[in-house]
From TrEMBL:
Family classification: Belongs to the GST superfamily. Tau family.
Location(s), subcellular: Cytoplasm, Cytosol
Protein name: glutathione transferase
Lineage: Eukaryota, Viridiplantae, Streptophyta, Embryophyta, Tracheophyta
Enzyme Commission designation: 2.5.1.18
Cellular component terms per the entry's GO annotation: cytosol
């Protein structure tokens, strides 16, 4: 018998939280070693998403099949930030060679009629990301040690 929907969503919620924290840490990482470590965590999470996508999609374009579902929306909401991290680090995290299923899924998701016109502009998001990074690093530098 398969997993209950509660178990499935619990797994994805945990995975998403862990992965999105690593993605966020990549944005504010200081130094090459810290950046490499956070990028490695992001890539590990993407490998898990790739594996689960293969199991759940069963060859269909989305996690739940032929139509966009809850998991697609949750994970899709962070795709633009993935593109920002790719831009900042001059690398591809989701690409056809490393994550072929996610690559196809991301293309299907981003080009879907219900999604394509509401996605934020990656360039504007990158500029916002730079401001967030600067504020974080400034706050960290001016924090009084205890």
């Amino acid at each position: 018998m398969g997993f209950s929907i509660f178990v499935l969503f619990s797994f994805f919620f945990f995975l998403f939280l862990q992965w999105s924290n690593a993605l966020r840490a990549t944005l504010v990482a200081e130094g090459e070693e810290a950046k490499k470590a956070t990028l490695a965590q992001v890539e590990e999470g993407l490998a898990l998403f790739e594996e689960e996508y293969g199991k759940l999609s069963k060859g269909k374009p989305f996690f739940g099949g032929d139509q966009i579902g809850y998991l697609d929306i949750v994970i899709g909401c962070i795709l633009d930030w993935v593109q920002v991290i790719e831009k900042f680090n001059e690398m591809k995290l989701i690409d056809e060679a490393k994550t072929p299923g996610l690559f196809q899924w991301a293309n299907s998701f981003c080009s879907h009629e219900a999604v394509k016109d509401v996605l934020p502009d990656v360039e504007a998001l990158a500029q916002y990301g730079l401001k967030v990074r600067a504020k974080f690093l400034n706050a960290k530098a001016t924090a009084t040690p205890k």
